[in-house]
Amino acid sequence: MQLKDSLTNLAPLSDEQQRQLNQALSTLNTQQLVWVSGYLYGLSQSGSQPVAATGAVTAPGGSLTILYGSQTGNAKGVASAIQAQAQARGLPVTLTSMADYKPKQLKKETHLLVVVSTYGEGEPPESAVDLFEQLKKGKVGKLEGLKFAVLGLGDSSYEFFCQTGQDFDSLLTKAGADRIHELASLDVDYQEAAKAWGEQAVNAIAATLSAGVATSSVAGAVQAAVGHSQYDKANPFPARLSVNQKITGRDSTKDIRHIEISLEESGLTYQPGDALGVWFDNDADLVGEVLALSGRSGDEATAHGSLREVLTRNLELTRLHGGFITGLAEISGNAALKDLAGDKAQVNALVASAQVVDVLKRFPTELSPEQLTGLLRPLTPRLYSIASAQSEVEEEVHLTVGVVRYPQEDGTVRSGAASSYLADRLAEDAEVRVFVEHNDNFRLPANPDTPVIMVGPGTGIAPFRAFMQERETQGAEGKNWLFFGNPHFTQDFLYQVEWQRYVKSGLLSKISLAFSRDQANKIYVQDRLREAGLELYQWLEAGAHFYVCGDANHMAKDVQEALLDVIAEHGHKSREEAEEYLSELRRAKRYQRDVY
């Protein structure tokens, strides 16, 4: 390789830098080498720094730390963009996930930017929980002298819009920190606003921060460069659907599909714990219904194609948001709709239970193409936990998809946009646009001898199928314990044959099942946790990692309560001591959740 040889002989590099660089380059193929060559050339011409590594040498006037708390990757993306803006100004900057940040480090910071999303009922994302709780309890101490700003991401269709961003702003202020730029609460179409806020925040920080250069290793630059795939959320890979198989029984109340997608020739890589982003088209019948209720044919021209094309591919039709209701009320002049729009509780209830088309059916309004598209929000991809290990399936990716159906009072059935796209509307071998969303906060232990406890009822089983495939490929010696639940054993035991094979081979040490409707008293996974409390606590004391995947609003909370009860009872601890024990597990990345 000429590039490797020429870099090896560069005089400005020390022997250690040459060794690191050669080690990094040895993992690259020809296409990646060409990409890195151009990347490094661009850096040399711009004078920018590729990364701000931990432990970087900074100017004496302080440095900027950007912390992000991300559930789906959006906050991480915004934080990375702001890091690039700061680097372009020559500021010493470090980008860190809240999951990897020690809360007591806050007292040593001089300038801080927080980028954080909100999920569930106004709760912080999983990676932000520990830092949030430490701030909330006042355990980080006083933060006088710290200059900060917060950018919150959220979804205005939910009641607790950007609540976590607001909470971080309030908690930092309460701790004595000085807000240097206004709080931003951004909706799902955040991109332009986030860019503008980042520029303004960096400008405010630059005015109070001595500029300095953050150094990093050459190998770090190469690894950072390689980490950028040519396919991502903005540029998805045109994959092919190869398998769509229903894996619940004929009489099941659930329609759950095993989906296999070919990634051949994509170069995409993923790890157990990652998610697959899926871009989808809205249902043609739904698009037609929205057009008819708006008094439009669909042939009207817009800047992005016909109105029908834009509604099909670019705009959200199934996720209702409060702005649609209030905006439609202003346009229509309908007195009843205006009354509804003025009642926040009614708006929240409607958003939680209805889709765009339901509001239009209830309040038919003729809308111009500009009015209709202005009321709707940009379509966003859906994320699915990956149900396969690449070490096992190579150039494939597997998903476990619960098809969402909403029976209506008039007898019709509304469907989830992405799940019905995969299950009902996408033909075998048809194109589906996908990208990998990495999740470093849901990872198997680095040591394959470490025991693992997995709690995944329903489609929450998906990442644990990937975990077991990976553990089998690794020849992992660590014990594995699965807790799985669903309504009925005969109809809803997902991947039953595979789990039985793992039990027979000894790879799956224990399996605890909770089929809630197979007896008079409903039994759930949290009940099985309590029943096995003593052994469960012994596993934790032996170093086990504990994982939860699935529903955030009910199951995950109930599982955490059961886990706290187990720790308190069998560890002979008070409630407060049990909570601290669980916090320590979280800080050690031994308690990880992928909940939605």
TrEMBL record:
Q: Which GO terms describe its biological process?
A: cysteine biosynthetic process
Gene3D superfamilies according to UniProt: 3.40.50.360, NADPH-cytochrome p450 Reductase, Chain A, domain 3 (1.20.990.10), Nucleotide-binding domain of ferredoxin-NADP reductase (FNR) module (3.40.50.80), Translation factors (2.40.30.10)
Q: Which PROSITE patterns match?
A: FAD_FR (PS51384), FLAVODOXIN_LIKE (PS50902)
Record's catalysed reaction(s):
hydrogen sulfide + 3 NADP(+) + 3 H2O = sulfite + 3 NADPH + 4 H(+)
Q: In which pathway does it act?
A: Sulfur metabolism; hydrogen sulfide biosynthesis; hydrogen sulfide from sulfite (NADPH route): step 1/1
Annotated residues for binding of FAD:
318, 352, 382-385, 400-402, 406, 416-419, 596
What's the EC number here? 1.8.1.2
The UniProt note on the cofactor reads as follows: Binds 1 FMN per subunit. Binds 1 FAD per subunit.
| Residues where FMN binds | 70-75, 117-120, 153-162
Q: Which domain of life is it from?
A: Bacteria
Which part of the chain is the Flavodoxin-like domain? 64-202
* Cofactor requirements of the protein: FMN; FAD
> Per the database record, which ranges form the FAD-binding FR-type domain?
234-445
Q: Which residues bind NADP(+)?
A: 516-517, 522-526, 558
MF terms per GO, please? flavin adenine dinucleotide binding; FMN binding; sulfite reductase (NADPH) activity
Q: Does the keyword Ligase apply?
A: no
Enzyme's top EC category: oxidoreductase
On subunit structure and binding partners, the annotation says: Alpha(8)-beta(8). The alpha component is a flavoprotein, the beta component is a hemoprotein.
In its UniProt entry, what is this protein called? Sulfite reductase [NADPH] flavoprotein alpha-component
Origin species = Aeromonas salmonicida
